[in-house]
Amino acid sequence: MKSEKLIFDRSFYFMCLLVIFTGRYTEWVIFMISIFFHECGHILMAKVLKWELKEVRVFGFGGFMQFTGELNKSNREDLLISMSGIAVNILILCLLCLIPKQFLTIRNLRLQNMFIQAQLFIIVYNLIPLPPLDGNRILINLLSMIFPYKRVLKLNSWISFIILGAILCLTFYYDFRQYYMAIGYVLFSTIKFVKQAPYLYQRFILQKVNAKNTGLSTKTSTLINEDWESVIYKGYNNQFFIRNKKYDEQKLLKVKYEQI
Q1: Which of 24, 115, 143, 191 is at a distance of 20 to 30 A from 255, taking alpha carbons?
Q2: pLDDT recorded at residue 59
Q3: pTM tops 0.70
Protein backbone atom coordinates (compact mmCIF):
# COMPACT_ATOMS: atom_id res chain seq x y z
CA MET A 1 0.00 0.00 0.00
CA LYS A 2 1.14 3.52 -0.73
CA SER A 3 0.76 4.62 2.88
CA GLU A 4 3.08 1.95 4.23
CA LYS A 5 6.45 3.08 5.59
CA LEU A 6 9.54 1.08 6.48
CA ILE A 7 11.61 2.84 9.15
CA PHE A 8 14.90 1.63 10.62
CA ASP A 9 15.39 2.75 14.22
CA ARG A 10 18.79 3.91 15.51
CA SER A 11 19.03 0.78 17.64
CA PHE A 12 19.07 -1.31 14.45
CA TYR A 13 22.13 0.55 13.11
CA PHE A 14 23.78 0.28 16.52
CA MET A 15 23.28 -3.50 16.45
CA CYS A 16 24.75 -3.64 12.94
CA LEU A 17 27.88 -1.83 14.16
CA LEU A 18 28.09 -4.15 17.16
CA VAL A 19 27.91 -7.19 14.88
CA ILE A 20 30.71 -5.78 12.71
CA PHE A 21 32.94 -5.23 15.76
CA THR A 22 32.20 -8.63 17.32
CA GLY A 23 32.19 -10.62 14.09
CA ARG A 24 28.95 -12.48 15.01
CA TYR A 25 27.70 -12.37 11.42
CA THR A 26 26.17 -15.86 11.29
CA GLU A 27 24.18 -15.43 14.50
CA TRP A 28 22.96 -12.01 13.38
CA VAL A 29 21.82 -13.23 9.94
CA ILE A 30 19.98 -16.19 11.53
CA PHE A 31 18.34 -13.88 14.05
CA MET A 32 17.22 -11.41 11.37
CA ILE A 33 15.85 -14.22 9.17
CA SER A 34 13.85 -15.45 12.17
CA ILE A 35 12.60 -11.91 12.87
CA PHE A 36 11.62 -11.56 9.20
CA PHE A 37 9.41 -14.66 9.36
CA HIS A 38 8.02 -13.47 12.71
CA GLU A 39 6.95 -10.14 11.20
CA CYS A 40 5.59 -11.90 8.10
CA GLY A 41 3.29 -13.82 10.45
CA HIS A 42 1.88 -10.53 11.75
CA ILE A 43 1.48 -9.10 8.25
CA LEU A 44 -0.20 -12.23 6.87
CA MET A 45 -2.77 -12.32 9.67
CA ALA A 46 -3.38 -8.57 9.26
CA LYS A 47 -4.00 -9.10 5.54
CA VAL A 48 -6.44 -11.92 6.29
CA LEU A 49 -8.33 -9.65 8.72
CA LYS A 50 -8.11 -6.74 6.24
CA TRP A 51 -6.18 -4.42 8.53
CA GLU A 52 -4.34 -1.63 6.72
CA LEU A 53 -0.62 -1.56 7.50
CA LYS A 54 0.57 1.97 8.18
CA GLU A 55 4.18 1.64 9.33
CA VAL A 56 6.86 -0.96 10.02
CA ARG A 57 9.66 0.10 12.35
CA VAL A 58 12.73 -2.14 12.62
CA PHE A 59 14.60 -2.11 15.95
CA GLY A 60 17.77 -3.84 17.05
CA PHE A 61 15.78 -6.69 18.62
CA GLY A 62 12.79 -6.95 16.31
CA GLY A 63 10.09 -4.93 14.63
CA PHE A 64 7.01 -2.92 15.51
CA MET A 65 3.95 -2.38 13.32
CA GLN A 66 1.29 0.27 13.31
CA PHE A 67 -2.06 -0.18 11.61
CA THR A 68 -4.57 2.43 10.52
CA GLY A 69 -7.21 2.88 13.23
CA GLU A 70 -5.73 0.02 15.29
CA LEU A 71 -7.05 1.38 18.60
CA ASN A 72 -10.61 1.12 17.33
CA LYS A 73 -10.42 -2.48 16.13
CA SER A 74 -11.72 -5.74 17.59
CA ASN A 75 -9.70 -7.00 20.57
CA ARG A 76 -10.06 -10.55 19.23
CA GLU A 77 -8.58 -9.58 15.87
CA ASP A 78 -5.78 -7.65 17.56
CA LEU A 79 -5.03 -10.73 19.67
CA LEU A 80 -4.80 -12.92 16.56
CA ILE A 81 -2.38 -10.52 14.89
CA SER A 82 -0.30 -10.20 18.07
CA MET A 83 0.00 -13.98 18.50
CA SER A 84 0.59 -14.83 14.83
CA GLY A 85 4.26 -13.83 14.84
CA ILE A 86 5.03 -16.09 17.81
CA ALA A 87 2.96 -18.85 16.16
CA VAL A 88 5.23 -18.71 13.09
CA ASN A 89 8.35 -19.06 15.27
CA ILE A 90 6.77 -22.03 17.08
CA LEU A 91 6.03 -23.64 13.69
CA ILE A 92 9.63 -23.08 12.52
CA LEU A 93 10.91 -24.50 15.83
CA CYS A 94 8.81 -27.66 15.41
CA LEU A 95 10.02 -28.13 11.82
CA LEU A 96 13.65 -27.70 12.88
CA CYS A 97 13.26 -30.28 15.64
CA LEU A 98 11.82 -32.77 13.14
CA ILE A 99 14.97 -32.74 11.00
CA PRO A 100 16.91 -35.99 11.71
CA LYS A 101 20.30 -35.04 13.17
CA GLN A 102 22.03 -38.09 11.66
CA PHE A 103 21.58 -36.63 8.17
CA LEU A 104 23.24 -33.34 9.05
CA THR A 105 26.91 -32.44 8.78
CA ILE A 106 28.64 -30.88 11.80
CA ARG A 107 28.32 -27.42 10.21
CA ASN A 108 24.62 -27.90 9.39
CA LEU A 109 24.00 -29.28 12.89
CA ARG A 110 25.54 -26.11 14.32
CA LEU A 111 23.33 -23.97 12.07
CA GLN A 112 20.28 -25.97 13.12
CA ASN A 113 21.09 -25.34 16.80
CA MET A 114 21.53 -21.62 16.11
CA PHE A 115 18.15 -21.44 14.38
CA ILE A 116 16.52 -23.34 17.27
CA GLN A 117 18.08 -20.97 19.83
CA ALA A 118 16.93 -17.96 17.79
CA GLN A 119 13.33 -19.23 17.71
CA LEU A 120 13.36 -19.95 21.45
CA PHE A 121 14.73 -16.49 22.23
CA ILE A 122 12.16 -14.73 20.02
CA ILE A 123 9.27 -16.78 21.45
CA VAL A 124 10.21 -16.27 25.11
CA TYR A 125 11.28 -12.63 24.68
CA ASN A 126 8.08 -11.67 22.85
CA LEU A 127 5.87 -13.36 25.44
CA ILE A 128 7.16 -11.00 28.14
CA PRO A 129 4.27 -8.55 28.73
CA LEU A 130 6.39 -5.41 28.38
CA PRO A 131 6.07 -2.75 25.65
CA PRO A 132 6.63 -2.88 22.74
CA LEU A 133 6.69 -6.71 22.77
CA ASP A 134 3.84 -8.91 21.55
CA GLY A 135 3.21 -10.11 25.09
CA ASN A 136 2.28 -6.58 26.15
CA ARG A 137 -0.13 -6.18 23.26
CA ILE A 138 -1.71 -9.53 24.16
CA LEU A 139 -2.04 -8.39 27.79
CA ILE A 140 -3.64 -5.07 26.80
CA ASN A 141 -6.20 -6.78 24.57
CA LEU A 142 -7.11 -9.29 27.28
CA LEU A 143 -7.49 -6.52 29.87
CA SER A 144 -9.53 -4.47 27.37
CA MET A 145 -12.15 -7.21 27.31
CA ILE A 146 -12.70 -6.67 31.05
CA PHE A 147 -11.81 -3.07 31.93
CA PRO A 148 -12.28 0.40 30.38
CA TYR A 149 -9.28 1.52 28.34
CA LYS A 150 -8.17 4.26 30.73
CA ARG A 151 -7.96 1.70 33.55
CA VAL A 152 -6.24 -0.77 31.22
CA LEU A 153 -3.42 1.72 30.61
CA LYS A 154 -2.98 2.25 34.38
CA LEU A 155 -3.01 -1.49 35.11
CA ASN A 156 -0.57 -2.12 32.29
CA SER A 157 1.84 0.48 33.70
CA TRP A 158 1.78 -1.14 37.16
CA ILE A 159 2.16 -4.66 35.76
CA SER A 160 5.04 -3.53 33.53
CA PHE A 161 6.98 -1.99 36.44
CA ILE A 162 6.40 -5.08 38.62
CA ILE A 163 7.71 -7.37 35.86
CA LEU A 164 10.65 -5.05 35.18
CA GLY A 165 11.51 -5.05 38.88
CA ALA A 166 11.40 -8.86 38.94
CA ILE A 167 13.68 -9.06 35.89
CA LEU A 168 16.17 -6.60 37.39
CA CYS A 169 16.19 -8.56 40.67
CA LEU A 170 16.91 -11.77 38.76
CA THR A 171 19.97 -10.15 37.16
CA PHE A 172 21.60 -10.08 40.61
CA TYR A 173 21.23 -13.86 40.96
CA TYR A 174 21.77 -15.03 37.38
CA ASP A 175 24.30 -14.11 34.72
CA PHE A 176 22.24 -12.27 32.11
CA ARG A 177 25.13 -10.37 30.57
CA GLN A 178 24.31 -11.59 27.05
CA TYR A 179 20.79 -10.20 27.48
CA TYR A 180 21.65 -6.83 29.03
CA MET A 181 20.97 -4.96 25.79
CA ALA A 182 17.60 -6.67 25.32
CA ILE A 183 16.68 -5.90 28.95
CA GLY A 184 17.85 -2.31 28.57
CA TYR A 185 15.74 -1.95 25.44
CA VAL A 186 12.50 -3.05 27.15
CA LEU A 187 13.37 -0.92 30.21
CA PHE A 188 13.67 2.19 28.03
CA SER A 189 10.55 1.27 26.02
CA THR A 190 8.48 0.66 29.17
CA ILE A 191 9.39 4.02 30.71
CA LYS A 192 8.60 5.71 27.39
CA PHE A 193 5.25 3.88 27.13
CA VAL A 194 4.20 4.87 30.66
CA LYS A 195 5.07 8.52 30.00
CA GLN A 196 3.08 8.47 26.76
CA ALA A 197 0.02 6.66 28.20
CA PRO A 198 -2.11 9.87 28.45
CA TYR A 199 -1.31 10.68 24.81
CA LEU A 200 -2.10 7.09 23.81
CA TYR A 201 -5.51 7.47 25.43
CA GLN A 202 -6.13 10.68 23.49
CA ARG A 203 -5.09 8.91 20.27
CA PHE A 204 -7.60 6.18 21.13
CA ILE A 205 -10.38 8.79 21.51
CA LEU A 206 -9.39 10.48 18.23
CA GLN A 207 -9.47 7.15 16.42
CA LYS A 208 -12.96 6.61 17.81
CA VAL A 209 -13.89 9.86 16.05
CA ASN A 210 -11.91 9.53 12.82
CA ALA A 211 -11.79 5.76 12.28
CA LYS A 212 -15.36 4.67 13.00
CA ASN A 213 -15.86 0.91 13.13
CA THR A 214 -19.50 -0.15 12.95
CA GLY A 215 -18.55 -3.84 12.97
CA LEU A 216 -17.60 -3.88 16.65
CA SER A 217 -19.71 -5.48 19.37
CA THR A 218 -21.69 -3.17 21.65
CA LYS A 219 -20.68 -2.58 25.26
CA THR A 220 -23.32 -0.93 27.47
CA SER A 221 -22.41 0.91 30.68
CA THR A 222 -24.66 2.56 33.26
CA LEU A 223 -23.16 5.76 34.66
CA ILE A 224 -23.96 7.19 38.07
CA ASN A 225 -21.16 9.55 39.05
CA GLU A 226 -18.48 8.50 36.57
CA ASP A 227 -17.33 10.51 33.60
CA TRP A 228 -18.24 8.59 30.42
CA GLU A 229 -14.65 8.89 29.12
CA SER A 230 -13.37 6.97 32.14
CA VAL A 231 -15.55 3.94 31.32
CA ILE A 232 -15.17 3.77 27.54
CA TYR A 233 -13.93 0.37 26.33
CA LYS A 234 -11.41 -0.37 23.60
CA GLY A 235 -12.62 -2.82 20.95
CA TYR A 236 -16.31 -2.03 21.37
CA ASN A 237 -18.92 0.45 20.24
CA ASN A 238 -19.92 1.93 23.58
CA GLN A 239 -23.37 2.90 24.76
CA PHE A 240 -24.08 4.68 28.03
CA PHE A 241 -27.15 4.99 30.23
CA ILE A 242 -27.01 8.40 31.88
CA ARG A 243 -30.01 9.35 34.03
CA ASN A 244 -32.08 6.63 32.34
CA LYS A 245 -31.28 7.94 28.87
CA LYS A 246 -29.22 6.01 26.34
CA TYR A 247 -26.35 7.75 24.58
CA ASP A 248 -24.15 6.42 21.81
CA GLU A 249 -20.38 7.06 22.01
CA GLN A 250 -20.41 8.89 18.66
CA LYS A 251 -23.02 11.35 19.92
CA LEU A 252 -21.00 12.09 23.06
CA LEU A 253 -17.77 12.37 21.08
CA LYS A 254 -19.43 14.76 18.65
CA VAL A 255 -20.58 16.98 21.54
CA LYS A 256 -17.10 16.86 23.09
CA TYR A 257 -15.29 17.95 19.94
CA GLU A 258 -17.85 20.60 19.02
CA GLN A 259 -17.02 22.26 22.34
CA ILE A 260 -13.27 22.33 21.62
Answers
A1: 143
A2: 87
A3: yes
CB 124 within 8 A of CB 38: no
How far, rounded to the nearest angstrom, does the alpha carbon of residue 148 sit from its chain's CA centroid? 19
Full domain range(s) for residue 241: 218-258
CA torsion 119→121→126→127, rounded to 10°? 100
**In 3D, which of 166, 136, 123, 150 has the Cα closest to residue 233?**
150
Task: Burial-class residue 28 by CB neighbours within 10 Å (0-12, 13-18, 19+).
Answer: middle
Q: CA 46, 47, 48: angle at the middle one, nearest 5?
A: 90
The DSSP symbol for 63 reads: E
Q: How far apart are CA 138 and CA 75, in angstroms?
A: 9
CA distances from 68 to 47, 149, 193, 203 (A): 13, 18, 19, 12
Last residue of a domain, one of 127, 146, 163: 127
For residue 1, pLDDT over 50 is answered with: no
Q: Could you give the number of structural domains in the chain?
A: 2
pLDDT one-digit tens code per residue, 32-64: 999 999 999 999 999 999 999 999 999 888 889
Same domain, 2 and 117: yes
pLDDT at res. 153: 96
> What 8-state DSSP symbol labels residue 233?
P
Do 112 and 225 fall within a single domain? no
Domain boundary among 95, 127, 159: 127
Q: Residue 50 falls within a domain, yes or no? A: yes
192 vs 187: CA distance, rounded Å: 9
pLDDT at 47: 97
Compute CA distances 237 → 20, 95, 207, 219, 232, whole Å.
51, 42, 12, 6, 9
